[in-house]
Q: What sequence folds into this?
């Protein structure tokens, strides 16, 4: 059993996370891994929602089950409860490896996916980034983004929580001590000067960047909130990690007709060169980042392997 505190300080660099996530996508695209559709149940009054995800990583020979449960009756941070776990099984020996808290896994794999999406969709010559949001995803976004896109050198940040702004800066400087972070007060104006926009804000944000705020060639990546539906409806090209998951979880981005735009290409096929991310320099590209459990498995396996080697966690004789 690996708790949140057991995993909190296990060393792993953003570049290592990006490589693990990319390898998981390539294995899936090659047909070596399985990622069935997630199951979900929700309270009829919206008090809670739970998901169950099963996956098989054929290259690591690991099978895993991930669960997530969110209790949020009043849409208030003070009462919100969110728990995720993942259980890993060795598909070569048949032995269980670990049951572990999944908070850090999600906090790492999602920005790594965004980094790969940007790498494959950014226009040639892109240099500037606007990050919207300073929560967990915002705090991890820039180190992973720069691990895959080191040419980005104008880093802009919009947020409303002083402690979040400080945490984003601290995390960035930990990995890139020479980096400069520019705080912006007008996200719409900043968006008009950004080549890349990462929207990682929470559901309470008042920011909603519109399609009219985007210059030709801009790539926008939706992780949380911060983009208006027009950025999808008016995009020249739409990329997703999974079109199926976008259809399931992206309904709040539907256009005036109540429908989502068709996805032009998915990240696994782009990474193995069966599809392309960008077809022209001037395309405005909308990117939807939703997680595949295979990326959770890759990061969880890396963390669990290192944690166990360091003697962390508690061995539980569950089946004795």
A:
């Amino acid at each position: 059993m690996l708790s949140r505190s057991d995993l909190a300080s296990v060393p792993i660099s953003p570049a290592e996370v990006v490589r693990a996530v990319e390898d998981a996508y390539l294995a899936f695209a090659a047909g070596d891994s399985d990622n069935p559709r997630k199951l979900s149940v929700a309270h009829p009054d919206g008090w809670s929602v739970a998901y169950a995800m099963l996956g098989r990583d054929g290259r690591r020979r690991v099978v895993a089950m991930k669960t997530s449960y969110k209790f949020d009756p009043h849409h208030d941070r003070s009462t919100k409860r969110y728990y995720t776990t993942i259980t890993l099984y060795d598909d070569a020996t048949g032995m269980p490896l670990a049951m572990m808290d999944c908070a850090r896994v999600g906090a790492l794999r999602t920005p790594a996916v965004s980094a790969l999406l940007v790498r494959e969709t950014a226009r040639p010559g892109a240099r500037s980034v606007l990050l919207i949001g300073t929560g967990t995803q915002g705090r991890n976004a820039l180190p992973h983004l720069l691990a895959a896109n080191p040419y980005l050198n104008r880093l802009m940040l919009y947020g409303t929580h002083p402690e979040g702004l400080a945490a984003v800066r601290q995390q960035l400087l930990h990995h890139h001590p020479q980096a400069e972070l520019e705080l912006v007060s007008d996200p719409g104006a900043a968006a008009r000067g950004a080549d890349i926009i990462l929207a990682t804000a929470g559901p309470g944000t008042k920011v909603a960047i519109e399609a009219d705020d985007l210059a030709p060639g801009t790539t926008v990546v939706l992780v949380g909130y911060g983009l208006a539906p027009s950025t999808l409806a008016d995009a020249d090209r739409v990329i997703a990690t999974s079109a199926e998951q976008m259809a399931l979880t992206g309904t709040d981005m539907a256009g005036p007709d109540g429908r989502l735009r068709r996805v032009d290409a998915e990240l696994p096929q782009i990474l193995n060169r069966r599809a392309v991310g960008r077809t022209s320099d001037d395309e405005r590209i909308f990117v939807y980042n939703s997680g595949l459990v295979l990326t959770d498995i890759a990061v969880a396996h890396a963390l669990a392997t290192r944690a166990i080697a360091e003697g962390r966690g508690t061995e539980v004789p569950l089946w004795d």
Remarks:
- The chain has a mean pLDDT of 93.
